[in-house]
Structure formats: structure tokens, C-alpha cells
Design brief:
single chain; 164 residues; alpha+beta; Trefoil (Acidic Fibroblast Growth Factor, subunit A); six-stranded antiparallel sheet; 30% strand; globular
């Protein structure tokens, strides 16, 4: 009868040691921060074309290709959408409805910072969305601009490579 009383105590002691060892391992190996960088082509929800920086004026939509003008990165930590040719940031300028978004030298200003919610890119200075002009949406060279966020598919953007 004495052995029966000791066995549950031994079981509880072993369980407590196993839990303590698990907690120690978790504390020794904390989770590492993951940097989520979006990259590649940027597709518009209302068009079959891609965001393109290959003009001297503003970004536009052109047929998707392997062109360096259509390669972009977005880093949520600094909010910048960076193009490769010329290397620079999408800038909302004055930020009023219809303002084109050129690729200019990155300077860290709020007009160059965007919040991406998985579909819309919202400029931090104006609160307006990156927008493909509905008047030219079915043409090559569609104007890309900022406009009041409406939830339209012309304001939806998707990166070729999105972090998991």
C-alpha cells in the first residue's frame, strides 16, 4: 500500500521536470523577427498590366515584361515602394486627387511612405490610395495617381512575391 502512494508522487515529479525543461528551451531560444519584403512585378486589380517606372514622368501601367522598369520592392518597416530604373521611391507629390506618382530620389518624406494592407497602397502623407486612372484603364500607359480610397479594383495592387 505504501508503494501505491509513492508512484503518483514520482509521476508528478517527472511531469514537473519535463515542463520545466520545455520552458527553459523556449526561454533560451526566443523567436526572431521576420522582415517582410514584397518584391517583383506589381499587378493592378482592374488591369492585366503591371506597374512600370520606365517613363520620365509618372509611373504607368504597361504590359508585364521582364523589364527592370517593372521590378519593385516594398518594405513595410520604412513604407517605401522602390523601383529599379532609375532607383527611387514612388512619391505622391502634392497628394491631391489626380496627382501622378513619379519615381524620385528617396528622401524619407511622408509623401514617399505607403501603408500596404494586402490590396491597397495608402500614402501616409495624404491618406489617399495608389490608383490606376479609370479613364485610361484599358490602354497601355494607364496613368497611375493618388485618389481618395474607394475600394475599387483599380486601387488594388498585388506583388509578385509576397511574404508568407
Amino acid at each position: 500500500m505504501l508503494n501505491r502512494c509513492k508512484r503518483p508522487s514520482l509521476f508528478v515529479l517527472m511531469l514537473a521536470l519535463a515542463i520545466a525543461a520545455t520552458v527553459t528551451v523556449v526561454a533560451v531560444h526566443p523567436a526572431k523577427a521576420v522582415i517582410s519584403i514584397y518584391s517583383g512585378h506589381v499587378y493592378n486589380g482592374a488591369s492585366t498590366r503591371c506597374l512600370d517606372s520606365g517613363t520620365t514622368a509618372n509611373a504607368q501601367l504597361w504590359p508585364c515584361s521582364t523589364s527592370i522598369y517593372q521590378q519593385w520592392t516594398y518594405n513595410p518597416r520604412n513604407g517605401q515602394i522602390v523601383g529599379n530604373s532609375p532607383t527611387g521611391c514612388l512619391d505622391a507629390g502634392a497628394g491631391t486627387n489626380g496627382t501622378g506618382v513619379p519615381l524620385v530620389t528617396c528622401n524619407g518624406s511622408a509623401t514617399q511612405k505607403w501603408t500596404y494592407n494586402g490590396a491597397q497602397m495608402i500614402n501616409q502623407a495624404s491618406g489617399r490610395c495608389l490608383d490606376a486612372d479609370l479613364g485610361t484603364i484599358n490602354q497601355n500607359g494607364t496613368k497611375v495617381q493618388v485618389w481618395d480610397c474607394s475600394g475599387g479594383t483599380n486601387q488594388d495592387w498585388y506583388f509578385e512575391n509576397e511574404p508568407q
